[in-house]
Amino acid sequence: MSFPRVIIVGCGFGGLWAAQALAKAEVELTVIDRTNHHLFTPLLYQVATAGLSAPSVAGAIRHILGDQRNTTVLYGEVRSVDPAKRIVRLENGDELGYDCLILAPGTTHSYFGHDEWAPYAPGLKTLEDALEIRRRVLSAFERAERESDPQKRLAWLTFVVVGGGATGVELAGTFAEIARHTLRGEFRRIDPQTARVVLVEGASRVLPPYPPELSAKAQLQLERLGVTVWPGRMVTGIDADGVSLGAERIACKTVIWAAGVASSPLGATLGAPLDRAGRVRVAADLSVPGHPEIFVAGDLASVEGVPGIAPAAKQMGRHAAKNVLHLLAKRATIPFRYRDYGQLATIGRNAAVVVMGKVKLSGFSAWLVWLVAHIYFLINFRNRLVVMIDWAWAYWTYQRYARIIMRGVKGSDK
């Protein structure tokens, strides 16, 4: 007996939650991802800043879905979708047919038309990105220790984070903590505490999606950590020697990009209407207009009032799976309704901001909420246990034992 063929593209939050929602369905489910792991992206910055090792925030997809007997996992990259023929095409030319399709491929970096900046300012979307950022940051201190010229040493000890959203704020705050606490007393020719961390944001305040009062508190907490916050500044150039902000120039050797994301190019292969960011303007039930058998979840879906955060992707993935079952059973699909559970951003030790409905927290109380929430939502018990132990040790000792420099992750030192 053959069952309906359902394909899920991407195993991030949207794809994984969709797959798990179909665990007991009478379907032939195929999950395709270009990596072999599900990544807990809210803690990816901890890998980039040497707070956690890669396995602490990632889990093998085959292991996570191993008990789902109706599920096949494929390690590959979907390059295009042919809605007319109901097939997806992989990078090697393979074609897979489907009866229903859920697209949840995630996002990539956007340099706003300046892709030439990418080699000098890596973004943070994958484990490879995190390891590359860690390598660049730790290597900068090592190069500064060897540098005899004061101006060149200053450039190595200057770190610029472009983008004041949650990722940029988290990175900048942690870089400051590394310089002022983790590395203190470990060098002989330089004082890591003299390192300069600059956070540049094009909008008038950091954390633009948050209420203004929490943005102000976040900036104050960053400045207390030693971060120089520059809101309302636009980057006009990035090269191997620094960052240009109009007529102003910052000499630095380490730039991290946290300013923009680009939608997956898969959206453009559907022949469906897209928004300015390249996301698919889906129908109320998350289906693609004109193709009720194709659903979009996560960052590729353009849904008014729904932010591009992990809880939203989970809800969309689960809802898309439910509508697949409705469609296969020849029942009416259900419009998607987003439930806002709030937003959280950590800034540093005992510093965070949280907004949950009318509840707005900052400082230590917000940090505790952030801590508990992120441990709770990690994929498995082992990861929760390891993260709790690592964080407890780091809290009392200020140490980060994932400080391993891996040469050649994405290239050599500048």
Written description of the protein model:
α1 packs parallel to α8 (310-328) and α4 (127-146) packs antiparallel against α5 (150-156). It is built from ten helices and 25 strands. The longest helix is centred in the first third of the chain and has 20 residues, at 127-146. A hairpin with a 2-residue loop joins β23 (343-348) and β24 (351-356). It folds into two domains: 5-109 and 261-328, FAD/NAD(P)-binding domain, CATH 3.50.50; 115-259, FAD/NAD(P)-binding domain (3-Layer(bba) Sandwich), CATH 3.50.50. With 414 residues, the protein is of the alpha/beta class. It has a six-stranded mixed beta sheet with strand order 5-2-1-9-21-20, with helices on one face. A four-stranded parallel beta sheet has the order 13-12-11-17.
Which features would summarize this protein structure in a list?
alpha/beta, FAD/NAD(P)-binding domain, four-stranded parallel sheet, 10 helices, 25 strands
Question: What would the principal axes of the Cα set say about the shape?
Answer: elongated
Number of domains: 2
Uncertain segments of ≥5 residues (pLDDT<50)? none
**The level-1 CATH class of the largest domain:** Alpha Beta
By DSSP (H or I, 4+ residues per run), the number of helices equals 10
Strand content: 15-25%
Brief overview:
The chain is built from 10 helices and 25 strands. It is of the alpha/beta class and 414 residues long. Helix 1 (13-21) packs parallel to helix 8 and helix 4 packs antiparallel against helix 5.
